[in-house]
Design a protein that fits this description.
With 480 residues, the protein is α+β, with helices and mostly antiparallel strands. It folds into 4 domains: 40 residues; 223 residues, Beta Barrel (Thrombin, subunit H), CATH 2.40.10.120; 95 residues, Pdz3 Domain, CATH 2.30.42; 100 residues, Roll (Pdz3 Domain), CATH 2.30.42.10. The strands form 5 sheets. Strands 5-4-1-2-3-7-6 form a 7-stranded antiparallel sheet. A 6-stranded antiparallel beta barrel has the order 8-9-10-13-12-11. Strand 11 and strand 12 form a beta hairpin. The protein is globular, with a radius of gyration of 29 Å.
């Protein structure tokens, strides 16, 4: 039998490790309880979104000849039509493809924040609440350049909604929680920390200032909230970096402070208006600085080009100028200048300090209105696109390998309108356009510029590649 003194001795001598373990478990339970409380508080305001977006679907039809189509008796394929097996012809039709994601309610009357890449251009948007109720949502407005969108449902006035925090106050290492519908699994909760702030040049949007987190974000989380420990929104979950398409510990969220201002404009006007200077910009590197006669350690933004008739052009800003100050603050990166200019409204007068021929020069400019993304990339007029009936995208290495265009340059046809000029000439989705009017095109900007020039003529000559065959196609261009 163990004596009472012995028991007391054991309790006195052993507790440090045991007490430490007990305290650790208690702490973990408290953390778990905190996550539970956040999930309970926030989940009712998180919604699932299904958007039906149009896309062009390829299909094949067998020709009706020899009796259903006129024949050319002297054509090369006249005998083929009678004596050989007919080949199917590829056609395209518009279909609606459902995409799924998330969003969150930010007002009692049903306004919802989400991503533009989820609901932009959707023909139908369905919102599913936590209680399984479904509503058809109205698209209030989208901002493709930040990937923010606002939709609205008509429901009771007392909907649960989330409060928005000050994302500028976030610190690296803070706990955050993501709630969404990854892979269609409703109200999934994951936790992690803030891995970094101010991530840009990710290539997802024009304006990037992302919060990076290791909270698990997967396909379907897009548009859902990133929350702090007070169950307040600090960001809109937007994307992951992953070669496999699944979570690998790097997720990005749009800071809610950026989304707040965009949300207000979309509610008021349905669009976002930004200031515009009208210059091409790039970071000043030591070699360029040296060749411009500046110290190699000079920080600033060099201007390769100035748009004719723009605010910068009217103010006297010139190519090779180096912007070092904007509104009294030093500018060291092109991204900083872009964000500063775009945060102001058209008509704002700004003071800019440039280095020209090694000398400082102060210039006052009145900002113009930032054009749409298509206008900035020299997109052709709408009537030209509609008449030609095609849309194009850049040819990536991955697409080139998949489609057999390795080592080639051009733009890839991503959409063809049925019955359009392009469709009648046999252009299909996946066609590679290598030249426009005998001029090579290597990206969409060059293609759009070439089409704009061709719009002054009645016809445009395209050199295209389809599978193994290269051919020339002539398309009629609409005239005003």
């Amino acid at each position: 039998m163990i004596s009472v003194p012995l028991v007391l001795l054991i309790l006195i001598t052993l507790p440090p490790a045991f007490a430490q373990d007990t305290n650790s478990i208690t702490t973990l339970r408290q953390i778990g309880k905190a996550f539970t409380n956040i999930a309970k508080k926030a989940s009712p305001a998180v919604v699932g979104i299904k958007a039906e977006k149009p896309y062009m679907q390829d299909y094949f039809v067998m020709p009706d000849w020899p009796f259903g189509e006129p024949l050319e008796p002297f054509g090369d394929d006249w005998l083929d039509r009678f004596f050989r097996r007919p080949s199917p012809r590829r056609r395209q039709r518009k279909e609606l493809r459902p995409v799924q994601g998330s969003g969150f309610i930010i007002s009692q009357d049903g306004y919802i924040l989400t991503n533009n890449h989820l609901v932009g251009e959707a023909e139908k948007i369905t919102v599913k609440l936590a209680g399984e109720r479904e509503f058809t949502a109205k698209l209030i407005g989208t901002d493709p350049e930040s990937d923010v969108a606002v939709i609205k449902i008509d429901a009771k006035k007392d909907l649960p909604f989330l409060e928005m925090a000050d994302s500028d106050a976030l610190e690296v290492g803070e706990w955050v929680i993501a709630i969404g519908n990854p892979f269609g699994l409703d109200h999934t909760v994951t936790a992690g920390i803030i891995s970094a702030k101010g991530r840009s040049e990710v290539g997802l949007a024009t304006f990037e200032n992302y919060i990076q987190t290791d909270a698990a974000i997967n396909p379907g989380n897009s548009g859902g909230p990133l929350l702090n420990l007070d169950a307040e929104v600090v960001g809109i979950n937007t994307a992951i970096v992953s070669r496999s398409g699944g979570f690998v510990g790097i997720g990005f969220a749009i800071p809610i402070n950026m989304a707040k201002a965009i949300y207000k404009e979309l509610i008021d006007t349905g669009t976002v208006v930004r200031g515009f200077l009208g210059v091409n910009i790039q970071d000043l590197d030591p070699d360029t600085a040296d060749l411009l006669g500046l110290d190699k350690d000079t920080k600033g933004v060099v201007l390769p080009d100035v748009t004719e008739g723009s605010a910068a052009d009217k103010a006297g800003i010139k190519p090779y100028d180096v912007i070092v100050e904007f509104e009294g603050e030093n500018i060291g990166k092109a991204r900083e200048l872009l964000d500063r200019v775009s945060s102001l409204k058209p008509g704002t007068r700004v003071k800019i300090v440039v280095l020209r021929d090694g000398k400082r020069k102060t210039i006052t400019a009145e900002l113009g209105k930032r054009p749409s993304r298509d206008e900035i990339t020299a997109a052709p007029p709408t009537d030209v696109l509609e008449q030609l009936g095609i849309a194009v995208q850049d040819l990536t290495d991955e697409l080139a390998e998949r489609l057999g265009y390795e080592g080639m340059t051009g733009v890839l046809v991503s959409r063809v309108e049925p019955g359009s000029e392009a469709a009648r000439e046999g252009i299909t989705r996946g066609t590679l356009i290598m030249e426009v009017n005998r001029a090579k095109v290597t990206n969409t900007k060059e293609f759009n510029t070439a089409i704009n020039k061709a719009a002054k003529e009645e016809k445009v000559l395209l050199r295209i590649k389809q599978e193994r065959y290269t051919r020339l196609v002539v398309l009629k261009v609409p005239q005003k």
